[in-house]
Amino acid sequence: MGRWLDWLVPTGGTAAVLTAVGWLVSFGPIAEDVSGRAAERLKAEGLGWATVAVDGRDVTLSGVAPDDGSVRMAVDSADRVFGVRVVDATVTVVPLADPYRFSATRDGDRVTLTGAVPSEESRSALLAWVAKVMPGAVVTDRLSLARGAPANYGAATAFAVGQLADLVRGRTDVSPAGYEIAGDPRDWATYGRLEEAMKSALPAGLKVVADKLVPPVPSPYRFSLSTAAGRAILEGFLPDATTKARVLDAIRARFAAGVTDRVAVVPGAPAGFADAIVAILPGLARLADGGFDLSGNTVTIRGGVLTEAIGRQILDRAKALLPAGFALGATTPSVLPPPVQVDAATCQSLLGKVQTGEKILFETGKAALDQRSVAVLDALVGGSLACLSAHITVEGHTDADGDDAANQTLSEARAAAVVAYLAAAGIDPKRITAVGYGSTRPVASNDTAEGKQMNRRIDFRVE
Questions:
Q1: Which part of the chain has CATH 3.30.1330.60?
Q2: Cys bridge to 383: 5, 94, 231, 350, which one at CB 3.0-4.6 A?
């Protein structure tokens, strides 16, 4: 051993070498221990951005700190580690961003993030969220570390990225002013969901300052009308405010109980869309729980009808009135179950009650039925269906004005017109007969206008 030392060090240097070796043996483990314990404490106190280097018992901190206060906290934390003599910091402080902004843009499967991010942890969380809501997207990260982030940075940026995921292309921005969005949603349902989220799901402290979403044309472009307790319920789309007002006026004229309007104004309706709606309306009066769906250029009429013949009449009239390019769907109105059968006397009472509120109207001086009488005529069809084994005589009457022969002819023609209506609506022609009495059977004086009106009538006799 002595010879080896004599060879390694000139005579007299042996003591110095032994001292150095002793120092290495003593301080190497100490430095390693100090470094480990300092790093553990910094991480535990949320200061893991700081990197520890130890020279003996002297500690040097490096890294990028989120702010000046974090530097002081890191130095203080390391200084409290047992065995540390001196703490020095060669730390870079993240720059301040003012204003603090975040932007995300999308064009198909390409996503770009720009602006500021408060920490690498925040960056990682944000990128993970992008990958989750937009799987397969090619992400370009141009975010810069910066301090000054608002307290709601994480929630606000997550919301912005989540909404971007529902755009085919577009942009979302978060800034001190608030939230902005622009672009093209995937479809109409998505557009509605985005709009609703901006009303009810905004993170705390965030407000919408610009909404430049482009409403997509719904596919299919649709409109529907349903009825409940005599009230019309409307849903779907109309292309502009003027068209909507026109359609609503036409519907309100036919539904005295009112209208529930859930129609959105959205451009993009097929040509003639509103005309098709107006054309369908007259037939609805003949339907029980009637309504229709207009999807693109196809109309589906729904509801119950007294007879199959009435259902065909409704469809035939709608088909004749629809604008060019529109067609009826395959679904037809359903025939209601037959009413409970009653005897002839009860049937007579039923038919009499039908005309208590409304009368069968004709064009002045003619036998042509007035379209305003469709409802009362269909009610008579319903009454006739309640006594299928009975025979019904339809009687025509006039007032005393004019020539007796002419009145007789007019009364017969009017009774025949009602019989023809009933037969066309599905009542067996063998069960119904028309007869006219002219002015020979008045029920009131022909000396007053009121009396004459009462004498101009259609009566029914059930046997």
A1: 344-462
A2: 350
The one-letter amino acid code at 150 reads P
pLDDT at 59: 93
Q: What would the two tokens of residue 304 be?
A: 């119950």
CA distances from 252 to 127, 211, 261, 361, 375 (A): 54, 34, 11, 23, 17
| Each residue's pLDDT tens digit, 50-107 | 999 999 889 999 988 888 888 999 999 999 999 899 999 999 888 999 999 999 999 9
d(CA 453, CA 455): 5
Edge-first strand order for the sheet with 138-145 is 138-145, 110-117, 102-107, 167-175, 178-185, 208-213
CA quadruple 185, 190, 192, 198: dihedral sign:
negative
The per-residue pLDDT of the chain, averaged, comes to: 91
What CATH number matches the domain at 344-462, 3.20.20.80, 3.10.50.40, 3.30.200.20, 3.30.1330.60?
A: 3.30.1330.60
* Separation CA 441–CA 396 (nearest Å): 10
Express each pLDDT in 400-457 by its tens digit.
999 999 999 999 999 999 999 999 999 999 999 999 999 999 999 999 999 999 999 9
* 131's tokens: 């990958």
